[in-house]
Amino acid sequence: MSYLRGSLRPDTPPPGVTPAAPSPWGKTRHLFHGWNGSVFDMTDGSNGTYLLPVGIEGMGMPDIDNYTFNSPVVHGVEWEGWRASGRECHWVIGVFERSSVEWLRQVRSFWKIFQPGKVLRWEIILPDGVHLNIHLRFKTDHTSVYARDPVKLGWGIYGITCFAEQPFWEGTPITQTWKPGGGETDFFGPTGFAPDFIIDEGAPLETATVTNPGDVEAWAKWYARGPFASAVIGLGGYTVSLPESFTNDVWVLDSDPRNPTAELNGVDMMSTLGSFDFAPIPPEEEVELSLQMEGSGQVTALFTPLYFRSV
What are the structural domains, with CATH classification, of the chain? Predict the structure, then answer.
């Protein structure tokens, strides 16, 4: 009997869930965060939904396209680059309850998070405390026929496949701040224009560096808070110049090429900037930034390291 994709047996009950004996080998926790705010701990085993520890796909490498060039006069090929083209994730999931009414309530609540077009966040918590996330959309459930009535049995097993638009696993976001001369800085956030975070001390602009611990390049979101007469933000020879910003002004520049934005206090200001060219933060190396500021404001970079694999 197999629970792998393509050979799912929807009439096979989930295994019994019993407390594990103490062991130095920890387990990975899997949480599903629905678009509607609901959260399902898929490794709890006591809440009516359970991720079977077989047939899990999506925790390894994404699909990779390699680009090569063929020459009519040279043997072999010349490698020109690669691109992560996508990722599919697959699980075998049991939904079970003590009565038909409770099972119906549970299965309806669970399937709401898989509405087509909606985004599901799969969170993995590893035994060493590392949290990784990937955002997915529903593709198929592979189970169009029930061999036995799940309402009467009180359980059903589903083989669910989703796909990721951004195929890398996301680590914990990293924030760093700098200000002219360094020193203490004020609480930054929540402002309504940025994620909530607290900066205890600002490092000097003159020595600003950033390190991306991920496997691939990351695109930063920049926050420039006044007061300053002018500011320059960037790295790798690519910079953006900002005009005067007063005490309560906050510029937000998202350098991600999939969604480039420039806002001042929540108002779109992209058309007012002369140029908007940013370079990504390369992986696994310390990079010097190009930061300048006239005034006593501060600059903060927020980025999420991306990883090929979750384990």
Answer: 29-170 (2.40.30.200), 174-305 (2.60.120.860)
